[in-house]
Amino acid sequence: MMQTLAVTGGIGSGKSLVCMILAERGFPVYDSDTMTKALYDEDPVLLEAVRQKMLPYSGREAGDMSGFLLDKYGRLDRKALSRIVFPSGVPDTVALRELESVVHPAVLRDFLHWKDSDETAAAARFGTVVIESAIIMDIPMFREAVDMVLLVDAPLETRIRRAMARDGADRESVEARIRSQKCSSFDASGDSGLPDVDFIIENSGTEDELRYKVEQFIDLNYNNRK
After folding, report:
1. Domain that holds residue 43
2. Where is the signal peptide (predicted)?
3. Which pTM does this prediction carry?
């Protein structure tokens, strides 16, 4: 039976690089952020559900759906959505919860369909697929769909600096995004306690050092499944 490894981590932790290395070694990777954006464009039912859920938080009159959250091509206007859910760069927790109530089930259905496809099975060298998600610890329906969780972590200050450099963002907005993610509350440099995960890779060094740690992880846990 195909197993699922979730790779998670806070902003700036390096989880995407870990997933890239896993993909190179024969683990099919489902990038939940990328696939969510694709679903917005490809699933008209999801798009309409998002528009309906967000209307009460838009300042528009009830029922005024004309062009709401649509760009000139009739696709989701992601910048307009972001202004509703993250006003001033800080999440509106109520609006975000409403958005997630329709997006998360759609993404889970898509992931399970992808996982069960013949193409994915043929590419899974170790009988395991990977789902990359920063928020999987917050979502019971996803946590129940995976077999193991790998947390990629680094000291909080390191993550903040990485995210600011990568996104061109100010410190305040990065810190707000970090606070909104449960997996970001664990700080490898502190003593906040171990999170409920199966494996932890600490990523405070170089890319070569991280690659070595991922190779060790594969050797210890998967090389007998080739």
Report:
1. 34-106
2. none
3. 0.87
